[in-house]
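Hey, I was hoping to borrow your eyes for a little while. I've been staring at a protein lately and its backbone has me curious. You're getting the sequence in one-letter code plus the fold written as C-alpha cells. Would you mind checking whether the C-alpha cells look sensible for this chain? Here's the protein in full, and shout if anything looks odd to you:
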Amino acid sequence: MNCKPAFQTYAELCSEYPPERAEALCWVPAQQVRETAQLLFSNRPVSYYAWSGVGQHTNATQTDRAIALLYALTGSFDAPGGNVDFAHPPARKASGKELLSKEQLKKCVGIGDLPIGPAAQGCIGSDALYRAILGEEPYAIRGVVGFGANLVLAHANPLRGEQALQKLEFFAHADVTLTPTARYADVVLPISTPWEREALRVGFEVTQAAEELVQLRPQMVQAAGESRSDAWVVFELAKRLGLADMFWNGSIDDGMRYILQPLGISLEDLRQNPGGVRYPLEMQYQKHCAPGFRFATDTGKIEIYSEHLHRHHYDPLPVYVAPLPRLRQQEAAARYPLVLTSAKLPQYCHSQHRQIASLRSKAPEPLVALHPSAALARGIKAGTWVRVSTPTGSVRFNATLDPGLDPRVVCAQYGWWEANDPLNLPGHAPLSAHGSNFNLLIDDGDLDPISGSAPHRSYICEIAPDPPTA
C-alpha cells in the first residue's frame, strides 16, 4: 500500500497555487500575497475573524477549512495573540438537543443531500425547506412555526419562498415586526423587543474577563400591546401540547435556575445585581497540549486530510473550486461581466430597523457601490438610480462610487423593504423588480455541496442606468 503524509499531500496541493496563479483567480496582486504571507508568519501567533463574508459562497466550506489550517499551521490556535478558547462558566445547557434521538435526526429534511451539513445538527436550510413544501421531498412539510426568519428578504430565491409559504396548510409566525414573510402567516404572534423582557447571559466571549460575567439583563420598558417574549411563546406552546414537564412546568424562571445551578448563583442574586455577577475562572492557553486531549475529529488531531469529509465522499483536502460552477457553464453568464457581492450595514440588523428615523437618516436609500471607471463606462453617475441584473432577476438601487473596489466588482445592500414614516421615506416592494430586494438577484440552484451555503457574496451581474439613458 502506498501512503503519503498529510503534510506532503497538502504541500503538493498548495504548490499548484503560486502567488501568480492566486492573482489570476482572486485579483489580489501576487506581491501582496507574498507580503501578507510574510506578515502573518513574522507576527505569529495571529488571530482571525470570519463569518458570513466567508460563509456565503458556493465554495464556503473548503475556503473556511483552508483559513483554519493556515491558522493552525502558524501555531495560532489557543495561543496568546491568537484566537483563544476561554475558560467558560460551567452552566447547564437548555437547548433540548439531547431530546432529539438519532433516529429522529435522520428524518431531518436535507440530510440526504448534505449529510454533514445543517441537517446533521438538526437544522434546515431554506432550499431544503422549499423542496419539502413544494416537491414533498423527502416528505411533505405542510405546517411551519417560524420565529423571526424573514425568508423573502434574507434568503436566496424569495419568489420560490413565496410559493412555498403560500402552499403551506398552516403557517404561524412570531416576530417583532409584521415583515413581508409574516404577511403569509395564518397566525402572527407579536414578540417583544429585547428591552421589553429579561434575558440571561452566561459569559460574553470577547475576553476572559467578559466570559466570567453572568448577567440577567432587566426589563427596561413595559412590553407594548399583547407582545410576549419568544421564550414565553415556546413555553406556552409546550404546556398546551402536554410537554410542560420538559419545560419546568411552564416556568421560565425555573428554566433559568436550572441553567445557573452549577454556578451557585441564584436568579435572585442577579436581579439584585443588574450589572452582573462575576464567576472567577482560571485561564489556560494551548489546552490541546495537555495529556489525553482530543479534537472533535476522527483521529483526535487537527486533520489536514479530513477523514470525516473523505468518508462522506467529499475532497479531504481544502481544494479550490471556482464559485457558481453551474451558472458559469451557461452561455448567459457572459452577459454578466461583473461580480456581485453584498455586505451588512452597521445601521441595521439584516432586514430590521429601517423604520427608525435616527438610523434611517444615516442610511436612507438602498445603495449599490461600483468603481468610478465601471460607472463611467456605463454612463452611471453617483446618486442616480440604476438597475442591477443577474441571470436570476433585476432590481433597483441608488448608485454610489467607491474607488477602493475592483472595477470588476459591485457591492449592493440587502434587507430593504420597510418605509420610514417620520422621514417620509418610502418602502420598497419586496418581490417586485421595481423594488430593491437584493435576494431577487440570487438563485438557490448553486449551493455549497457540503454546507448548502447560498452565493449571497459572489454572484454575477451587469448594471445600467434606470431608466436607461438614450
Q: What stands out?
A: The longest strand covers residues 394-401. Residues 6-84+286-311 form one domain. The chain has a mean pLDDT of 94. The chain has three domains: 6-84+286-311, 97-278, 327-465.
